[in-house]
Every structure is written in structure tokens, then in C-alpha cells.
Amino acid sequence: MSSRSGGVSPHAVHGLVDADREVALLLDIIAATSSGPEVEPMAAAVARMITAATASDVCFVHVLDDTDQSLTLAGATPPFDEQVGRIRMPLGSGVSGWVASHREPVVIVSDKEADPRYVPIAALRGKDFASMASVPMETEPGGLVGVLNVHTIERRDFTPRDIELLLVIGRLIAGALHQARLHRQLSARERAHENFAEQVIAAQESERRRLAGDIHDGISQRLVGLTYRLDAAARAVDDLDQPAAAEQLEKARDLVDLTLAEARSAIGGLRPPVLDDLGLLGGLASLATSIPEVDLDLHLADERLPEHIEVALYRIAQECFQNVVKHSRALVATVTFTVRDGVARLEVVDNGVGFETGPLSSSGGYGMLSMAERAELVGGTLTVRSRPGAGTTVTVSIPVEG
């Protein structure tokens, strides 16, 4: 038996059940659609509601998955709720797949195995139930959302009123389920973006560690060895009393010292060990000591954050401190780091010359664009407030999980 599902109005609920059951049913529908933005809790509430409203023994709510190519069991009455998320069927397969493909209800009163559309699923124990009714859940503009199945242990002749009631409930619930699907897809995209950002930053920092190791194990070690040889050569020249040669050797040693200092600075810039050992608090404090030109007033919370966020904030602070030294001509700056209400916030305020703010890409030497990109990569935002003669305030805010 099949019948068309079009032309059903939510008002058709009235008259299908008595007044008391109508009120209870509407309250159940409201509760189901208010159970939260997740698909599974809503589908579970729908299954319980339909079982009670139709006096059936079990209800299965199959929801179209995010590929729109198959149905997933999203809600079921006990004990089949244990199978939620485990049962999947392609469109066109089984009774539910047929209903989804044809957008028409199906009623099987008895002998399900004889129906060519029926495909037994062992986990759902189809043989335990004599009769079933299956209807599509549709909404506009979402189209097909899923399929509702009800089963009874005893033989039951589902009437047109029964099917109409199922269709009405399905249409009333479909909109909320469609919104839940959209919420799930959006959450999945956000998680994918966060994972991608973490992977990008992890790859960058891995490469920085490799370069730092190469500099330390190669260039630095060779320069240290060269320093020892120059020292020995200088002592030998001193013994031979050759002032000119000694002077050249001393200059060469000065050059080696300078190169070694630059190599060590490069290592620290690539991956400061203090960030690994002490976290962002120690990293920012250490970074501040490398800027003697400006009196930095530090207010830093002792909070550990996910590594990719600590790295992003450290790099932003590093760029910001360099801007203070190179461009602001500030004498004093205040650095504040806090974590409150799920948001990590870093603020650097200087009393320098300031500048006319505009698009970050036009801020040239201040490197604001690179800092903004780092903040956005981890889901944060960077704001800049400044005007000529009034100093500059750079604030970065990044949401963090509890």
C-alpha cells in the first residue's frame, strides 16, 4: 500500500486525536523541537513521541546524512537506541530507502519478507514485528530530511488517518531536524578549520625546530671550534711578537663572536626554548628582557593554553615588540595577558608617536597584516587603535576551550 504525502497541513492534527491527546501531542512536538541543536537528542525525542501518539511498539527515525546519499538511524525507542549511528542504508535500499527515493509512504500489514522492497537488518530485529508504516519527513526549503518508521508486534491495519498523522508529525518535526543538520554541518566545518589551523601552525613550528637544530648542530658548533682555533693562533702570534697579525686575528675573533651571537639569536627567534619550558608567561617575560630600549610594564596571567595558540600569541607579541622599538619611538609600554570567560587576550599599549590607522594592509612597516593573519588562523581577531601623538594599542583576542 502506498499513498501520496503532498498536501498535508499541520492543522490536520486536529481531528485525528481527541482533544486531550491533541494537547499532549502538541506539547510533545514543542518539547522535541526544543531539545537542542543536536540531531540525535531531537530524533530520540521524536521516536518516543511518535510511539506514544500512534500506539505502536517501536519507532525508528532515519535522517538523511550530510552527503545526501544515505540514511542514518538517528533516533529509536529502547532498546534499539543502542544502534543509533550504527545503522546506515543508501537511498533506494530497503523500505526506508524506497520511501526516501519516492517520497511516498509505505504500509506493510504482514509478511514483510514477501515485499521486494524489504531488506532485513538483524540489529533491528524485523522478524519480531508483524506490521510497519514508513513515511517521508519533508520540509521547505530543505526538501527530504529523513524517514519515520513505526512497527507493531501484533498485526495492525494502519488506516489513512494513521498515515496522515505520521505525515503531519513528520512535517512539523522536519524543519527542526533540518536546522539541526545544518548546525551539525557548520560545527563540522568549524572543527575542520580549527584542525587545519593547528596542523598548519604545528608544521610551521616543526620546520622552525628543524632549522634551529640545524643551526645549533652545524653553524654554531663550527663557530665555537673556530673560536678555539683563533684563540690558539692568537697565543702563538703573541709569542712571535707580530702585532699586525695579532690585530687581524683579534678582528677575526670579533667577527666570529658577532656571527655566533646572531646564530644564537636566530635559534631563539625560530623556536625559543623558554616557550616549551615555561609556556606563554615565561616566553613573554623572556621576550620583554630582550628589549632594553623600552620600559615594559608586564601584567601576565600564569595560564597554559593549547600549543598552537601559545605560539600564535608569542609570535604576535614578538612582532608587536619589534614595532614598538622600530617605529613608535616609545619610552614606556604596558603588556597585559589575560584568560577570562573562554577568551585569551593580549594587549600591548605604548606611548609612542602613533599613526593614522587604516586598512591593515596599508600599515606597511608595522607588520599589522601578518599579526592579523596569525590571529585569524587560530580563530581570533586583532584590533589596532592609534592616532598621531597618542600612542598605539594592539589587542588580540582568541577564543579558547575550557
Automatic annotation (TrEMBL):
CDD domains: HATPase_UhpB-NarQ-NarX-like. Residues 313-402 form the Histidine kinase domain. SUPFAM superfamilies: ATPase domain of HSP90 chaperone/DNA topoisomerase II/histidine kinase, GAF domain-like. It catalyses: ATP + protein L-histidine = ADP + protein N-phospho-L-histidine. InterPro entries: GAF, GAF-like_dom_sf, HATPase_C_sf, HATPase_dom, His_kinase_dom, Sensor_HK_TwoCompSys, Sig_transdc_His_kin-like_C, Sig_transdc_His_kin_sub3_dim/P. SMART domains: GAF, HATPase_c. Its EC number is 2.7.13.3. Its cofactor is [4Fe-4S] cluster. The keyword Iron-sulfur applies. One of its GO terms (molecular function) is phosphorelay sensor kinase activity. GO terms for cellular component: cytoplasm; membrane. Keywords: 4Fe-4S, Cytoplasm, Iron, Iron-sulfur, Kinase, Metal-binding, Transferase, Two-component regulatory system. It is an enzyme of class 2 (transferase). It is found in: Cytoplasm. The keyword Cytoplasm applies. Member of the two-component regulatory system NreB/NreC involved in the control of dissimilatory nitrate/nitrite reduction in response to oxygen. NreB functions as a direct oxygen sensor histidine kinase which is autophosphorylated, in the absence of oxygen, probably at the conserved histidine residue, and transfers its phosphate group probably to a conserved aspartate residue of NreC. NreB/NreC activates the expression of the nitrate (narGHJI) and nitrite (nir) reductase operons, as well as the putative nitrate transporter gene narT. This is Oxygen sensor histidine kinase NreB.
